């Protein structure tokens, strides 16, 4: 593992010439944009980002957004009047005469200043309350909007690299949306504070405004420049951070722990960590020096400029062109402006960097219609009497040949139908088309003679159950994993256990530490891991629970032991004549009793018929059956 030196640059090499582990990663796009953007480009982009941020905020909560904007503007107004009131207090205190009289003269302005300060504090509290409450509402709004789309898009969308990449960026953008809204609010507050100070100094004396700019501009430039250096260094360290993340995973996570100890990898991995961190530490120290120099130069120039402002105030005082009270207020204004400007510069960097990811989210949502299914039918599908496929063809986006090509078949109610074929022959794709999970490029699927595109898709799926070979291990209890088969009509414990018994899962679940209440994920307290065969039983139980008109089982016994497999297929055969079952399996002995066996080869339907007829025909099915039979024979 080579160590990245501090000569890495933010600008990447052309993608085609860069090794995979060195290529840029999408989740650092905002950092890359900020590192490569000039300060002018950053400032030009801000209005659009602020508008978009408040648009999201308005959608999440109009009331809180109005409170934030109103309170922020109100606080700025109070700040302006506060400075003017401060000047009036100083006018009274600096006036001639006995001290009691001066205090009495300043008292009205002092009371007004106290009232303004109290109102401004109250407005700040209102802004904080509204902002804190807005954050979870924005999170919920953008995440719910995204998940409404990702759970509705066509299944084939996930086969497209473009969709997967855009969706990952949109997820990152969800997190950035909240940060963008917060940065926009804070930036608005900082800008309003600056404008409030500017308005006050203009009223006090017009010459104070350019003096205020001279006193604050160098510090602002230094802050933006330091931020630019930090983003560039962060971007250049992409590879190091990815390696550190990997080493953290290898040394501190459960999965690699056994092999780490078996192969004695501790010292090797610690050595890799030391090499990477030595380089990272040196680079961070170098960055600290550069940032310190930049901010020091800015502070020095700003200090000189501030001193010049104070000299100007002195000159104006000596020439009686400005009262002492106005000069003192000008000093307070300079300090207030510097604090506000520090907030503005920090939020500008943050808003621009996170805005890149925020635009990934908004762009994905704008293009989401491309991935949504076509308008659905509204006809109600009745109980299954027959399902047919007519010339169905489907090609995956990254393939030149069709996964399923011109397939026509018919399934009658109550039948047990089997689909056999080699790996990659199109069996699972065909099953997905039958299940309504994939829409063919051409051809028609009919349910009781009606094209499935004319039927209500939700009502149709309620009549179809699927037990997939590529099942997901849902991190819920055993009971919930099975009951997920009936989300709309939660199943009782008796039905759950009956379905588990059909799938040969009941005894296995009862033996778990908490029975059906056991969490099936070790990430949770007292959670348990299951073997592949045990998970397969849970998945089959979910399919049996639904007891649908049509049950499609794709390799349901590939990880089961012999007794469990035999019991599972007994339960499948019990459906024969009552419910319709489609079986996909490589173990041909399990489908000997199927009413019809469809044989797939290279995406095409090449044979069909009952077991005996296919054996007699001497085709592919007969060849595969004889090969499997040899494993149980001495011939």
Topology:
Elements: H1 29-36, H2 39-60, H3 62-94, H4 99-150, H5 161-204, H6 208-236, H7 238-252, H8 257-262, H9 266-318, H10 324-367, E1 386-394, E2 404-412, E3 416-421, H11 427-434, E4 442-447, E5 450-451, H12 457-461, E6 464-467, H13 478-483, H14 493-502, H15 506-510, H16 532-546, E7 550-554, H17 562-573, E8 580-584, E9 596-601, E10 604-609, H18 611-617, H19 620-630
Parallel strand pairs: 3-8, 3-9, 6-7, 7-8
Antiparallel strand pairs: 1-2, 1-4, 4-5, 9-10
Helix pairs in contact: 1-6, 1-10, 2-3, 2-4, 2-5, 2-10, 3-4, 3-5, 3-10, 4-5, 5-10, 6-9, 6-10, 7-9, 9-10, 14-16, 18-19
**How confident is the prediction overall: mean pLDDT?**
80
> How many strand segments?
10
Strand content: 5-15%
Give the low-confidence spans.
Answer: 1-27
Protein name: Multidrug ABC transporter permease
Pfam families: ABC_tran
Transmembrane segments: 65-85, 105-123, 179-201, 207-224, 297-319
Subcellular location: Cell membrane
Describe this structure in words.
Helix content is 61%, strand content 9%. It contains 19 helices and ten strands. It has helices at residues 29-36, 39-60, 62-94, 99-150, 161-204, 208-236, 238-252, 257-262, 266-318, 324-367, 427-434, 457-461, 478-483, 493-502, 506-510, 532-546, 562-573, 611-617, 620-630, and strands at residues 386-394, 404-412, 416-421, 442-447, 450-451, 464-467, 550-554, 580-584, 596-601, 604-609. The strands form two sheets. Strands 6-7-8-3-9-10 form a six-stranded mixed β-sheet, sandwiched between helices. The longest helix has 53 residues, at 266-318.
């Amino acid at each position: 593992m080579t160590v990245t030196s501090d000569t890495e640059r933010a600008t990447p090499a052309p993608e085609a010439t860069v090794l995979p582990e060195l290529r840029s990663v999408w989740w650092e796009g905002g950092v890359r944009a900020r590192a490569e953007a000039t300060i002018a480009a950053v400032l030009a982009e801000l209005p659009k980002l602020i508008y978009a941020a408040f648009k999201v905020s308005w959608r999440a909560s109009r009331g809180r957004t109005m409170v934030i904007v109103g309170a922020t503007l109100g606080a700025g107004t109070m700040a302006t009047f506060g400075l003017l009131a401060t000047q009036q207090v100083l006018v009274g205190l600096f006036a001639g005469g006995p001290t009691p009289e001066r205090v009495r003269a300043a008292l009205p302005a002092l009371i007004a200043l106290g009232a303004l300060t109290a109102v401004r504090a109250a407005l700040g509290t209102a802004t904080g309350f509204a902002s804190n409450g807005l954050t979870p509402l924005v999170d919920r709004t953008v995440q719910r909007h995204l998940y409404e789309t990702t759970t509705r898009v066509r299944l084939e969308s996930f086969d497209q690299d473009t969709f997967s990449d855009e969706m990952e960026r949109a997820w990152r953008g969800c997190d950035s949306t909240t940060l963008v809204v917060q940065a926009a609010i804070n930036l608005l507050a900082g800008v309003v504070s600056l404008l409030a100070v500017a308005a006050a100094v203009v009223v006090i004396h017009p010459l104070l405004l350019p003096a205020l700019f001279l006193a604050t501009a160098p510090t602002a430039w230094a802050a933006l420049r330091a931020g630019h250096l930090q983003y560039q260094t962060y971007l250049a360290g992409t590879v190091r951070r990815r390696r550190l993340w990997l080493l953290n995973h290898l040394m501190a996570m459960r999965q690699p722990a056994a092999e780490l100890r078996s192969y004695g990898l501790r010292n090797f991995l610690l050595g890799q960590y030391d090499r990477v961190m030595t380089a990272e530490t040196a680079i961070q120290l170098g960055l600290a020096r550069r940032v310190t120099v930049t901010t020091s130069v800015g502070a020095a120039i700003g200090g000189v400029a501030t001193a010049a402002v104070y000299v100007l105030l002195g000159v104006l005082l000596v020439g009686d062109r400005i009262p002492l009270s106005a000069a003192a207020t000008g000093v307070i204004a300079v300090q207030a402006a510097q604090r506000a400007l520090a907030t503005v510069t920090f939020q500008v960097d943050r808003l621009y960097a996170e805005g890149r990811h925020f635009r990934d989210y908004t762009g994905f949502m704008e293009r989401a219609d491309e991935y949504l299914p076509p308008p659905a039918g509204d006809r109600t599908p009745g109980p299954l009497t027959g399902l047919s496929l007519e010339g169905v063809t489907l090609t995956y986006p990254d393939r030149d040949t069709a996964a399923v090509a011109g397939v026509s078949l018919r399934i009658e109610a109550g039948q047990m139908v089997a689909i056999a074929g080699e790996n990659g022959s199109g069996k699972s794709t065909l099953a997905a088309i039958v299940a309504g999970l994939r829409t063919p490029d051409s051809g028609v699927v009919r349910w009781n003679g009606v094209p499935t595109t004319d039927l209500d898709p939700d009502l149709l799926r309620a009549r179809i159950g699927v037990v997939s070979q590529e099942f997901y291990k849902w991190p819920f209890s055993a009971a919930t994993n099975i009951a997920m088969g009936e989300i709309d009509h939660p199943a009782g414990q008796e039905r759950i256990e009956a379905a588990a018994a059909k799938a040969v899962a009941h005894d296995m679940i009862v033996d778990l530490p908490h029975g059906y209440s056991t969490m099936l994920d070790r990430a949770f307290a007292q959670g348990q891991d299951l073997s592949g065969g045990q998970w397969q039983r849970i998945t089959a139980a979910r399919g049996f629970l639904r007891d649908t008109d049509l049950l499609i089982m794709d390799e349901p016994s590939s990880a089961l032991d012999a007794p469990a497999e035999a019991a599972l297929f007994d339960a499948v055969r019990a459906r024969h004549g009552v419910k319709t079952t489609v079986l996909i399996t490589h173990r041909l002995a399990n489908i000997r009793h199927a009413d019809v066996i469809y044989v797939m080869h290279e995406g095409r339907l090449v044979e069909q018929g009952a077991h005996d007829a296919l054996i007699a025909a001497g085709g592919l099915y007969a060849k595969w059956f004889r090969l499997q039979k040899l494993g149980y024979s001495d011939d």
